[in-house]
Amino acid sequence: MTASKPQPRPCSIADALGVVGDKYALLVLRETLFGVRRFDAIARNTGAPRDILTARLRKLVEAGVLEKVPYQDRPVRYEYLPTKAGRELQPVLLLLKEWGDRHLAQTPPLVWEHDCGADVSARICCRACGEELRRGSVTPHYQVPGWSLAGPVEE
Amino acid sequence: MTASKPQPRPCSIADALGVVGDKYALLVLRETLFGVRRFDAIARNTGAPRDILTARLRKLVEAGVLEKVPYQDRPVRYEYLPTKAGRELQPVLLLLKEWGDRHLAQTPPLVWEHDCGADVSARICCRACGEELRRGSVTPHYQVPGWSLAGPVEE
DNA sequence: CGACAGGGTTTGATTTTCCTACTCACCGAC
DNA sequence: GTCGGTGAGTAGGAAAATCAAACCCTGTCG
Q1: For domain B16-89, which architecture applies?
Q2: pLDDT tens-digit profile of B83-100?
Q3: Least CB–CB distance from B12: residue in A64, A108, A113
Q4: Cβ separation of A19 and B124 shorter than 8 Å?
Q5: Closest by Cβ to B15, choosing from A100, A119, A125
Q6: What is the third-level CATH fold of A12-87?
């Protein structure tokens, strides 16, 4: 009788996707990071319906990814700025862009240039040892009561 | 009369999100990368309804992220393996995990250990110059006909 | 034989999304 | 002063996606 409703795996990836894991959230963040911060422009550039955009913006503000700031009074108008947490999602966008460019066979419309003059290609390294992270060099450890890597553990 | 339906910004981030930008796709991929590759186990660990999971798995196979492979005949049973393209999404999961751990105030249930013995903390560097990518050191360039960084350009 | 495992499909209710139109507050031109 | 435009949404209703639970099919085990 204890196993009434099996819960999914507790996981911070799932938590993060609860915030940005839908069709528009990351596109909205992309726009704000591009400097496009007003409702109408975000709606146009992402293609999000206006009511959905209203809901997403509210959710992202509540989650601390965006901040809603008035930029004029009379009439009061707001813009949406990425917070620190929002800016820390930029690498996720960069990786998705690179993955999309590599695997989705579209002409890459967007190039990100690094200060050094090169087009950005991300190299993901271990902060501790400096080595590039490769397939197989990273091992997940999963120690949550009642769970293993494979799934829930019966006691 | 030409501007009947304004298209959203063409962007490989949007293309990538067309494949993995929903509630379950990346959780399904997470499971396959954890070694959980069978329908029932993926359904249990992600919490996805079975019919939705069926649809997602099909979409991910079509997109070339997963591969559907029989692991026995009589009765034939399938498992889902990440392809090369699927494995290349692992860094996205790693970044989402780190972001979730940092900003969503849950005990991090999952630790990824690098070969060097340290818990993985990703450092994202420019492949060309080796410097760590920082806020402000990356500039998007957007050269698509009819578009600028800010939005569509009227001609 | 009946029970179970694995991988789904079906059904019907609930929830979200989408599209179009409308509002409200103000500004600037006529 | 009122007409038109801008910015940021709301409102209404149709269409699509999601959800939970039950069902199905193939084959194996006891």
Answers
A1: Orthogonal Bundle (1.10)
A2: 999 999 999 999 999 999
A3: A108
A4: no
A5: A100
A6: Arc Repressor Mutant, subunit A (1.10.10)
